[in-house]
## 1
Amino acid sequence: MRVISGTARGTKLQTIEGLATRPTTDRVKEALFSMINHEIAGTKCLDLYAGSGALGIELLSRGAKSVIFIEKSVKSERIIGENLRKTKLEDKARRLINEVDKALMMLKGERYDIIMMDPPYSIGEVKKVLDLIASEDLLESKGLVVIEHDIHDPDLAEMLNYYEWIKTKKYGKTGITLLRRQHENSSLPG
């Protein structure tokens, strides 16, 4: 796995061995970032279920102002740290070792321009996390949520009470869905 573009372009990243994580393939990562590249510069971002940190590091390499990496695994958090040092991007990053839902509640009152989410497939995390992002008011007006998911997950369009669906692209068994926060007066859950 490598950084595709930006200041750290070509840097090889360390990954986590075993089946506990599912690294985003370069093909999917290239497609994902081609969809959002024009929106990255100067943004404040979250990388949920960060794994090795590859998605958040790609954001930083492409000009994001800051990224908070949220990962519950101590081993993964160490690899994120090593990858940040290797890419010389650690000064723009913060790492939280915690369950995603608990970390999001800790961040209440902060707002982000882009939230990347690559949860474990088939455990029902997407709807729960989308609801939490909305109820904790973590997304800037017109901010983006980028979700990597199994194409067989329930139709995300049914979960869009406070998000506007932008697009979904499929790459084999992987789907990438972009959602945008609706206007400020959208009713929030909770």
Note: The chain has one domain: 26-181.
## 2
Amino acid sequence: MPFTPPKPLEPPPEDLKGSTVLVVDDERAWRVILETDLHMLGYRVAMAEDAVEALERAETDPPDVAIIDLMLPEPMDGRALFSELRARGMGVPVVFYTAYPVFGEPPNDPDILGYMSKAVDRADLYALLPPAIRKRRGASEGPPPAAR
């Protein structure tokens, strides 16, 4: 199989720089890779190695979007963490990022941006973030002043 160079990483639009991305992964290497990339692109990053830490981080620093490993250690996997965030009133858009190759049914939930394999180019992962942040900000800000 020929080597395919990685795609260039596209920084977010200026108005989205500084947005908070919650990264939840029990593997330190992946946390470091994602944190390094996201900082370089201009995002603020909140890191957690399990669901309990992720819930604490989300309470103190509400994220604009989250990248969550599906296979987190007990007591909560990635899907359970997503459900718990929502139950606590923190409906945040999520990309499930996993080494697990089979995802099952595509999500039928507007807050689940998708399931992405850790084997794919990270540029594809990061490309999902700006539209999700815009959508979340639009939903939380309500109609523009002229429409009120």
Note: Residues 48 and 54 are 5 Å apart (CA to CA).
